[in-house]
Amino acid sequence: MKLVKSKILLLCVAGIMLLFFSNDFGLIDIEKTAIITAIAIDLKDNEYEVTTQIAVPEATDVNSEDKKAVISSTGSTIGGALKNISNLSGWFPKLSFCNLIILGNSIAQTNTIKVVDYFAKTLRVQDSATIIVAEKTAKELLEKSSPLDNISSFALQKILLKNPGFDKNVAAVDIKTFCSDYYSDASSSKMPLVKIIEIQNSESGTSNNSSQSPTNQSAQNGEQSSGNQCIFDATTTALFKNGVMVGEIDKMQTLTYNLLFDQTTETTLSVNDVSINNSKPADYLLTILRNSAKIDVCADKNAVNLNINLDIYCKISDINSDSQHEDYAYNKVVPEEVLRSAEELIIKNLNDLILTQQQTQCDIFGVKKLLYRKNYKYYHSFKDNYLSVLNPSISVTFSG
After folding, report:
1. With contact defined as beta carbons under 8 Å apart, do 313 and 288 qualify?
2. Over the range 17-54, which residues count as b (16 or more CB within 10 Å of their CB) and which as e?
3. In the chain, what percentage of residues exceed pLDDT 90?
4. What is the pLDDT of residue 302?
5. pLDDT tens-digit profile of 98-142?
6. Any idea which of 285-299, 319-333, 377-391 has the lowest mean pLDDT?
């Protein structure tokens, strides 16, 4: 038996050496390989403009940092544009490490599945790559400079894929989930809408001396604008129906949505202007310790009843008040007035979400799927107008 195992091991080693010395492991020269970290897609003159961000490692004895290269090309198809990039640059595009796909606003106004399908079906890009839509052009997000990271796509991923402990105010979606939602019966999907927030680099400050000439003013203004950097805001969520962007929900509504469909441990919630025992109103910061939600659909002959039950356990983390509250330095019972205000805030946002869902016809709560699974008897009666006859019943309970 040992002899057989030894022979198998020798055969494996011989096979690996054969592949190595025959150069099958070196079909692509590492110096000619471009590691693409993000892909941005826009529509330009009825063609796809594909922009890739390539990580270029440059190390010296003094310091080492990753620099970026942004290369664009156009084509009638996504694959053709990527091929043109390799032809223009001389680099073979390596997509195995691409974790971010950015769609421009021009793409979002059309059926986005024509673009996303390429990345879902090709084996070169992993299905877990995050997909987002830009407020303006996708190319602009890759060209911007951010103080968070030298490579802007890495800075974007930091705010999209947050570890536990950060606020759950971003509804991150990967390629697989977006395509699955698109091809569902409701054909409703979502993704983060990323906005650019300009910040002024302190190193590029200029003097406010009014005696300087207009020429000098223009030159200094040019230097100041070139020093501008930006950060990214992904707390707004874009809603898609049949692949077309039909609306959006804001930061607070996104957080409320995540309370229903995700674990939001350590997420903070601000409750403002709460008066306790007729005292002066104060602002409270609550930290959510755990949350549990249940969504159910029950139809009858007249309507589709949507039942939402949300339970949240929280604690007070901070208070903005004129009076001192030393007791809140420890785990104390949260006042009833604060709990009721928090419940009213979440209920308001849930009602706004349901109203947005009805206006955009984007079924982000998965009502149609629940109607099919649990009330198939009424499915064919309401499958075309179930959102217009929706009757919501919301129960939110805060405790602490």
Report:
1. yes
2. eeeeeeeeeeeeeeeeebbbbbbbbbbeeeebbbbbbb
3. 43
4. 87
5. 899 999 999 999 999 999 999 988 878 888 899 999 999 999 998
6. 319-333
> Could you read off the pLDDT of 324-335 as tens digits, one per residue?
555 555 567 888
- The 3-class secondary structure across the chain, one letter per residue, is CHHHHHHHHHHHHHHHHHHHHCCHHHCCCHHHEEEEEEEEEEEECCEEEEEEEEEEEEECCCCEEEEEEEEEEEECCHHHHHHHHHHHHCCEEECCCCCEEEECHHHHCCCCHHHHHHHHHCCCCCCCCEEEEECCCHHHHHHCCECCECCHHHHHHHHHCCCECECCCCCCCEHHHHHHHHCCCCCEEEEEEEEEEEECCHHHCCCCCCCCCHHHHHHHHHHHHHCCEEEEEEEEEEEEECCEEEEEECHHHHHHHHHHHCCCCCEEEEEEEECCCCCCCEEEEEEEEEEEEEEEEEECCCCEEEEEEEEEEEEEEEEECCCCCHHHHCCCCCCHHHHHHHHHHHHHHHHHHHHHHHHHCCCCCCHHHHHHHHCHHHHHHHCCCCCCCEEEEEEEEEEC
Residue with tokens 């309370």: 259
The pLDDT of residue 222: 37
